[in-house]
């Protein structure tokens, strides 16, 4: 998934594998193995270097197309609410439990 995303971004920028590897300061062979799915778990540092060259953040590299479509549908208020919950220390599990409780409460 990450490799395909990197390759797609690279091709959209009309950059060769060699150009991206050189500008990012990573081995061309390693970048190639990521793009082809031979290696599938690149480090954050690697993704930061590649992202900088391709003009995207690490988060953008990690998001799938489905995730991006969902994010596009979220309005700014929902994003702010989620960010506020994260900053306040609410875990995903706690948030999920709240949602489930709210569904249960509405049905009774």
From TrEMBL:
<feature type="domain" description="Sin">
    <location>
        <begin position="65"/>
        <end position="103"/>
    </location>
</feature>
<dbReference type="Pfam" id="PF01381">
    <property type="entry name" value="HTH_3"/>
</dbReference>
<dbReference type="InterPro" id="IPR036281">
    <property type="entry name" value="SinR/SinI_dimer_dom_sf"/>
</dbReference>
<feature type="domain" description="HTH cro/C1-type">
    <location>
        <begin position="6"/>
        <end position="61"/>
    </location>
</feature>
<dbReference type="GO" id="GO:0003677">
    <property type="term" value="F:DNA binding"/>
</dbReference>
<protein>
    <submittedName>
        <fullName>Helix-turn-helix domain-containing protein</fullName>
    </submittedName>
</protein>
<dbReference type="InterPro" id="IPR010981">
    <property type="entry name" value="SinR/SinI_dimer_dom"/>
</dbReference>
<dbReference type="InterPro" id="IPR010982">
    <property type="entry name" value="Lambda_DNA-bd_dom_sf"/>
</dbReference>
<keyword id="KW-0238">DNA-binding</keyword>
<dbReference type="Pfam" id="PF08671">
    <property type="entry name" value="SinI"/>
</dbReference>
<dbReference type="InterPro" id="IPR050807">
    <property type="entry name" value="TransReg_Diox_bact_type"/>
</dbReference>
<dbReference type="InterPro" id="IPR001387">
    <property type="entry name" value="Cro/C1-type_HTH"/>
</dbReference>
<dbReference type="GO" id="GO:0005829">
    <property type="term" value="C:cytosol"/>
</dbReference>
<dbReference type="GO" id="GO:0003700">
    <property type="term" value="F:DNA-binding transcription factor activity"/>
</dbReference>
<dbReference type="GO" id="GO:0046983">
    <property type="term" value="F:protein dimerization activity"/>
</dbReference>
